[in-house]
Every structure is written in structure tokens, then in C-alpha cells.
Amino acid sequence: MHYLDNSATTPVLREAAERAFQVMTADFGNPSSQHKMGIEAAHILKESRETVSDALHVTPGEIIFTSCGTESTNMALWGAARRRKKGHILTTAIEHAATLSCCKRLEQEGFSVTYLMPDSSGHISAADFADALQDNTILASMMLVNNETGVRLPVEECGRILKRRCPEALFHIDAVQGLFRVPLTPSKWACDVMSISGHKIGAPKGIGALYLKKGLHLSPLLHGGGQENGLRSGTEALPNIAAFGTACQLRAASFAEDVRHVTALKESLLVGLRARLPWVLVNGDGEIPHVISLSLPGCKSEVVLRILESDDIFVSAGSACSRGKESHVLRAMGLDKARIDSAIRVSFAPFNTDEDVKALLDGLEKASAALKRG
Ligand code: PLP
After folding, report:
1. Residue-averaged pLDDT of the chain
2. What is the DSSP code (8-state) at residue 165?
3. Digit-coded pLDDT (tens) for 176-212
4. Does residue 9 have its Cβ closer than 6 Å to ligand 1?
5. Distant-in-sequence contacts of 20-27, Cβ < 8 A, 24+ apart
6. What pLDDT sits at residue 324?
7. How does DSSP classify residue 60?
8. Does the beta carbon of 153 sit less than 6 angstroms from any atom of ligand 1?
9. Residue 26 contacts by C-beta under 8 Å, 6 or more apart in sequence?
10. pLDDT band at 374; cut points 50, 70, 90
11. Burial of 212 by CB count in 10 Å (0-12 exposed, 13-18 middle, 19+ buried)?
12. For a tag site, which of 24, 102, 189, 236 has the least CB within 10 Å?
């Protein structure tokens, strides 16, 4: 099997799965219970929070566990909106559906929203960001790494501009595709809230986290027992939380080596494409080697996907969340329809190998021959 769809999700790391199993079957107490098992569970929760906070270079008290990146983003955006009740929100047209759908709903609630457009290489300009700010901007929300093109957005510069021009506004960064792709330093980016998700780094699905800057309060989406500092009630998903901690520990230990390895995989894919399929187009100019968008003009992406799948090679057409719909990211970049309709996304994880790249190149050659290209 050649799994090259790691921006959609990743297999759970064996150590993380084992940790989850241990917590499910042995250390299964409720962290709120007063007896020994509860105390042990609370200890596991504390340790996991410390590990996740290390990954973001923040303090453990600034981490709130959620069920996924989408929940974290909803908490951030609805929480920020409820603080101010009305005003302007600045985001980009290339965000994940979690952000875009929230923004659409907030528009229905009376907020005004500006969606910044990328250039044809997929980049968002910090100058455009500065120009779009308004006196009543209450929130800016921006992804760190685009999930289709691997483009890195200028969060550092935008955070600085936002705080200078609108000091009361909150800055949310969706770092779901950035975790262990680039070092995360929300405190250096004037970031108030940041979303991350476990299943993109080898933890199970169903676990995410929100960084909330110390001293800041957001109104919660869930009310109940007051877990997670009252911000996210509900008994903590301790097996997932512990597995997230383990995945963070492992990925942190091999971070630099992983980036080198994935960079080499992307380079060998590009070299192979130039030699064997020179007409294949690369969409966007992504800095992050983990994600690359390719177009095979004349070959419908769904058909290419099926041909690859028949050889056990798995990639996406656009993002997994777009479910066959035209990519809003590539459309916003102004690419033509033939290019959008034939786009596939290849996304690497550290476990991928040169054999995966070779299989993909063979598969693309086969697909293009079958579809009479090349
Ligand atoms: N943000 C980005 C950039 C993503 O790529 C994703 C998932 O693909 C999400 C948010 C949502 O994360 P989750 O699947 O954990 O809800």
C-alpha cells in the first residue's frame, strides 16, 4: 500500500495506539474522580497537556483539549465573536471549511467578513491584510499552512500588523496542517488562539486542542461539568488525549529529521515528474514539502484517483473535506477549469519512502497513458 494522503489523516502511531489501549483498559479512571484511579487519570491528563504544550512552546495552562481541529476553530471564532457581539472579521478565501463555514454563519448573525484572495502561487499578501483591516475589526483568522498547496501564510507579519492597527482584535491561527511541519511559536506571532488536531500527526481521530493565550477568556460552546477550565465541559477523552501526548513526544523527537526526509521525498517526486511526465503542472508554490498539488490537464482527477487506487496508491482530489467538489483554493488562485478538474493532492508523512514516490510516478504514467496523455 502507498498511502500519500496524510493531509487528510494519518495512521495512528503504534506507540500512541498502545498508550490509548492502556488508558482505555487499565488507567481508565475519570480525572474528576477523587479516588486513586481518578488521581492517576488526572496525572495522565496533566502529563499529556504538558507534552502538547511543549509542541507549541506555550504553558500547559494555555492548552484546552477539544475533539478535533474543527471544534477548536469553532471555539475560537464563536468565542471571539461573542466577546464583541458585532464588528468586522478578516480571513482568507483559502481557509479550511471549519473557518469558512463559521464565517458564513457569523455573516448571517450580522458580522461583516472580508475574505482575502491569494495570488496565482497561492500566497496571501501581508500588505493586502493590512489594507483590509477596519477600525471595527474584532478578529483575524488565518491558516498557517494551506492544506492543498502547502503554502505558508505570513502569520508573523499579519499578527504584528493586526496588533498595531487593532490592538483589541483577536488573532486566530489554524495550525492544523502546521503541527510538526513547521515549529509552532504562537507567542512570537501575536497569536491569541490557535487550533491543532491529533489525527494529522499520528494520534487518533477525535482529539484536538486549542491554544488560548494566558489571561484571555472565550465563552464556551459546551456547558456542563466545567472541565478544561470551564471552557470545554464533558469528561475528558483520556485515551485520545494520552495518545496525542505520545504522538507529540515522538514527532518532536524526530522533527528535524522528518522535515529533511519529507523534503527529499518531494524533491524526488519533482525530479521524477520533470523526467517522466514533464507536462504535469504543480499548483501553487508551497514552502511546506508535506503537501503538493498537481494537475494533469485533460485527465479528470476522480478517474486518476481510481486508476491509482487500483494499484493501492492513495491520494486526494483537492482536500478530503471537499468531497469531489471543485477546489475553492485553486479557484481562488485563478487557475483555469482544466487545471482545477485534474488536480490531485499528494501529502507525505515521515513514514513514506522512495518506493511510495516511485509507485506514484508509475501510477501517474499508467493513468496518463490510459487517459491518452503524455
Ligand atoms: N484546518 C485545516 C487546515 C485542516 O486541514 C483540517 C482538516 O483537514 C481542519 C482544520 C479540521 O481538522 P479536524 O479534521 O481535526 O476537524
Report:
1. 96
2. H
3. 999 999 999 999 999 999 999 999 999 999 999 999 9
4. no
5. 20/204, 20/239, 20/240, 20/242, 20/243, 21/239, 22/242, 23/238, 23/239, 23/242, 23/243, 24/239, 27/238
6. 65
7. G
8. no
9. none
10. low
11. buried
12. 24
- For residue 345, the number of C-alpha atoms closer than 13 Å in the C-beta half-sphere is 31
Query: Closest Cα partner for 99 from 153, 52, 62, 38?
Result: 153
Contact between 317 and 305 under an 8 Å Cβ cutoff? The reply is: yes
Residues noted as catalytic: 321
Q: Which atom of ligand 1 sits closest to the CA of residue 71?
A: 16
Q: Is the pLDDT of residue 313 over 80?
A: yes
Q: What is the predicted pLDDT for the residue at 319?
A: 59
**Nearest-atom index, ligand 1, CA of 199:** 15
Positive or negative CA dihedral for 63, 147, 181, 189?
negative
Confidence of residue 325 (pLDDT cuts 50, 70, 90): confident
Which helix (H) or strand (E) segment holds residue 174: the answer is: strand 170-174
- Entry field: residues in the chain: 374
Looking up cell 501564510 gives 153
Q: Which three cell numbers stand for residue 107?
A: 455573516
Q: Which three cell numbers mark 179? A: 503541527
What contacts 306, CB < 8 A, 6 or more positions away? none
Alpha-carbon gap, residue 13 to 234, rounded angstroms: 26
Q: Are 159 and 188 in contact (CB under 8 A)?
A: no
